[in-house]
Amino acid sequence: MLMPCLETNIIIKNSNTMKRIYFALVALCTLNSQVSAQKKYGEIKADTAKVRYVRNMDKAQSYIYDSPFRKNIILVNEEVTTHVIMPENIKLVDISTNKIVGNQCTDNIVRIKPAGRMFNNELAGTITVIGERHMAQFDVVYTSGPSKASSVYQITTEEMKLYKNPDVLMPEAQMANYAWAIYGSGKEFNNIHSSAYGIRAVVNNIYTINDYFFIDFSLYNKTKIKYDIDEMRIKLTDKKEAKATNSQTIELTPVYSLNKAKSFKKAYRNVLVINKLTFPNEKILRLEISENQISGREIYIPIEYEDILNADSFDERLLKTLSKKLR
């Protein structure tokens, strides 16, 4: 009767031993797996980036540094290319993060887009646009709705008050606006003209705007030969340069030229912009236009100091008239 009980005890003991061995093997495998994963991914650090939202921007986030100017928001979406247009030529664009991609496609337009899908109302980064004279800064915010994203964002004058470059008195775009207004205006001067080789040169208007002179002139070709413009130069020279033995000539570089055409058949009109200057009565401003041909027909227009003194101050109504014509 004792034998069956002994056999039962041996079976139970063997069963318990097997369970212990099994659990020990499972624990050992788990430990090896953890050590292996730790070794493989030990270099990886936890993500510490925080997603910023702009639903309730506080004062510290809304304003640029300690200035009184609020950062405006440009909404973007991965399905929409956003074109940011500045009223003046862009010199530099700074994008603060690789979450936004973009490039400058023309002189005054930069296009941007989010690099991928983000959370709705997530702050993707900041874009700073620096022009000839002004600077503007914006928060770029992702929107999940493509219809809410800006396809065109026009920077306003109010948004460019953050900075003003003292070395640039007038941006090129503003010069162009004034020049176009003058180009479309009537003729005010009648006494400044010159003729040679069948070409007649006439000064239509001289305007003074801020620290610049705007010289509006026309050329009329009475010959059957097209006139190819080689170069236009403005010189400050003596009235009697031909007879003077110690005459001094100073060449002035135009800061802007409206008409980029290099040839004309019958008529040509342009507006040149030069820095404002004064000079004695013994000197004249000499506008020279030379031809890009073997014949080299050259025409010049002498502008007396008295004509400069009679230059009109620009009438802002001309700009309003131009704006109406362009609509």
Q: What distance lies between the first and last C-alpha atoms, to the nearest angstrom? A: 118 Å
Oligomeric nature of the chains = single chain
Summarize model confidence as the mean pLDDT: 78
What is the fold named in CATH at topology level of the largest domain? Answer: Immunoglobulin-like
What is the element string, with H for helices and E for strands? HHEEEEEEEEEHEEEEEEEEEEHEH
The tally of structural domains comes to 2
List the helices and strands and how they pair.
Layout: H1 2-41, H2 59-62, E1 72-76, E2 82-85, E3 90-95, E4 100-106, E5 109-114, E6 123-131, E7 134-142, E8 152-154, E9 163-164, H3 172-183, E10 193-196, E11 199-209, E12 212-221, E13 227-238, E14 250-252, E15 256-257, E16 263-264, E17 267-275, E18 283-291, E19 298-303, H4 305-309, E20 312-313, H5 317-326
Parallel strand pairs: 1-7, 2-8, 11-20
Antiparallel strand pairs: 2-5, 3-6, 4-5, 6-7, 7-9, 10-11, 11-12, 12-17, 13-14, 13-16, 13-18, 15-17, 18-19
Helix pairs in contact: 3-5
Short key terms for the protein model shown above:
alpha+beta; 5 helices; six-stranded mixed beta sheet; 327 residues; Immunoglobulin-like; five-stranded mixed beta sheet
General description of the model:
By secondary structure, this protein is an alpha+beta fold. It folds into 2 domains: 59-168, Immunoglobulin-like (Sandwich); 175-314, Immunoglobulin-like (Sandwich), CATH 2.60.40. The chain is 22% helix and 37% strand. Strands 10, 11, 12, 15, 17 and 20 form a 6-stranded mixed β-sheet that branches. Strands 1, 3, 6, 7 and 9 form a 5-stranded mixed β-sheet that branches. Strands 13, 14, 16, 18 and 19 form a 5-stranded antiparallel β-sheet that branches. Strand 18 and strand 19 form a beta hairpin. Helix 3 crosses helix 5 (317-326). The model is unreliable at 37-57 and 59-69 (pLDDT under 50).
